């Protein structure tokens, strides 16, 4: 099996490298006769099609390899080496782009804007890790995502945060995901890319503020393992959902758990479910009461949170440049006090009237009004499910990874005395 896999990888490399060496851009940069030089861009230039195919192929091969190492070999050392490769290739060589995390915005915009043509490479980077997660758990997080790999390599002295603090901080990625989808759906901004803490490091052009942000995450990552993955990553929310239904998943012990408790504190991500046996489990009546209470509580939380989102829609909409422009034009006295911005100059040169700008802003505000309800309702639903999970006690006898929050890093396996 191993020899066949290595043979396939070798044939792939031998086939693809000669093609990439002769690859050309389909749309070369124009040549100017006026002495004009092409400015350096902050984002990577479009790649030749064969190079995009290579990126997707490397993604698939790396996911196959990491899934085999996690599920079959249960090898922490193998995961470590794949992490280094992913950090080198998807991080520094590919400069963090295409990124599965940021692809959420492209997919959202493609769904809401028929005029936007989404690249197939972006679709592949969005879908393929989700498919592998549905099959094998979060093996993408284990050693393929360069963001996770960078943080995993600095987790030298991780400390426990406790279930309650984990649950509270774990709400942030849901809010981040909701805002990212809202702003992408309305064509406002790609906030995941704008506030990405690691891409600036991969491209060696991070602003001072983003450098401080990334440095803070990495330094705190020494003691709080994978802070971005656990408490910020919006793509992690989707991976969490898909992993709960995974066909296969990493297990701490290859056979029956012997209750030795050696793995109890082995997970730096608090992703091991401790056994709960309970001498006096709850009766059917108590469980029914809790179920009824949850069924009543969740709709109330959805409505209250949705209403709060609706009330905040004007504030949320101010991120959109057209809404900001209309807000500025509605206050001419302030415009006189401040120097004219580039946005105002561009607007005046366009020949549009303030009435047209205001009409466009009203249309965008309507979108945010609906989006505010949906965003708020989504957060209320997540909060309600979190409370429901705390109320409903699950009884189990073995130490098992939490299929949603486990990163499949295989650290816990080394603590198990049963090896086969």
The gist of it:
This protein has 420 residues and is mainly α. It contains 20 helices and two strands. A two-stranded antiparallel sheet has the order 1-2.
Molecular structure report:
The protein has 420 residues and is mainly α. The protein is 61% helix and 1% strand. It has helices spanning 2-21, 49-73, 76-93, 103-112, 120-136, 139-143, 146-152, 163-169, 172-185, 191-194, 199-203, 208-220, 227-231, 234-243, 284-311, 313-317, 321-329, 332-337, 342-350, 354-391, and strands spanning 272-273, 400-401. The protein has a two-stranded antiparallel ribbon. α9 runs antiparallel to α20 (354-391). The longest helix is centred in the C-terminal third of the chain and has 38 residues, at 354-391. The model is unreliable at 5-28 (pLDDT under 50).
Search tags:
420 residues, 61% helix, mainly alpha
Lay out the secondary structure:
Elements: H1 2-21, H2 49-73, H3 76-93, H4 103-112, H5 120-136, H6 139-143, H7 146-152, H8 163-169, H9 172-185, H10 191-194, H11 199-203, H12 208-220, H13 227-231, H14 234-243, E1 272-273, H15 284-311, H16 313-317, H17 321-329, H18 332-337, H19 342-350, H20 354-391, E2 400-401
Antiparallel strand pairs: 1-2
Helix pairs in contact: 1-2, 2-3, 2-5, 3-7, 4-5, 4-9, 5-14, 9-14, 9-20, 15-20, 17-20
